[in-house]
Write a structure and sequence with these properties.
- The protein has 152 residues and is mostly helical.
- The chain has helices at residues 2-12, 16-43, 51-60, 65-84, 88-106, 117-132, 139-151.
- Helix 3 (51-60) crosses helix 4 (65-84) and helix 4 (65-84) crosses helix 5.
- It starts with a helix and ends with a helix.
């Protein structure tokens, strides 16, 4: 009976450290994807076009240059912040909005096969990060812990 209870607990209960690891993996995955794409758009790294061509492509889609710059830097900086878990919720909020707009712009071309499904997945991932927060394995958590130590 005890072994049966242990199996049920293993299958149904959530462990906070495992949940923190899950959020770390999600933050790093989304962050790395956005950071690499942002580097490509801003600097032309990793096979990207660089800022001039990116702004032209955004303009051709009907997006004004200031908004295109905002989008590119949101991916670059937001991705970097998500990787480390610094300012996690504001970064996730900015990424969520950016990916919502990307989803809306790509949706007329279809949802699957490289169209709106990609930004939609990143948007939902950003929502999960926004709702869950950075959890234990993040710079935010380290700063909060050191702030509590200083106040004591």
């Amino acid at each position: 009976m005890a072994k049966s209870n242990m199996i049920v607990k293993l299958l149904t209960e959530t462990h906070s450290k495992l949940l923190s690891i899950c959020l770390l993996l999600l933050r790093c995955t989304v962050g790395i994807i956005l950071f690499v794409v942002g580097c490509g758009k801003v600097f032309g790294w990793f096979g990207g076009q660089g800022m001039v061509l990116t702004i032209q492509n955004f303009f051709n889609m009907g997006i004004a240059p200031p908004l295109a710059y905002l989008s590119c830097y949101t991916e670059l900086i937001g991705g970097f912040l998500l990787i480390g878990g610094l300012f996690t919720r504001p970064a996730a909020f900015a990424v969520m909005i950016n990916m919502l707009v990307a989803t809306i712009f790509t949706l007329p071309n279809g949802f699957f096969f490289g169209m709106a499904a990609y930004p939609f997945t990143l948007m939902i991932s950003a929502v999960v990060i926004l709702l869950a927060g950075p959890m234990a394995y993040s710079v935010d958590s380290l700063l909060l812990q050191s702030g509590e130590t200083i106040q004591e």
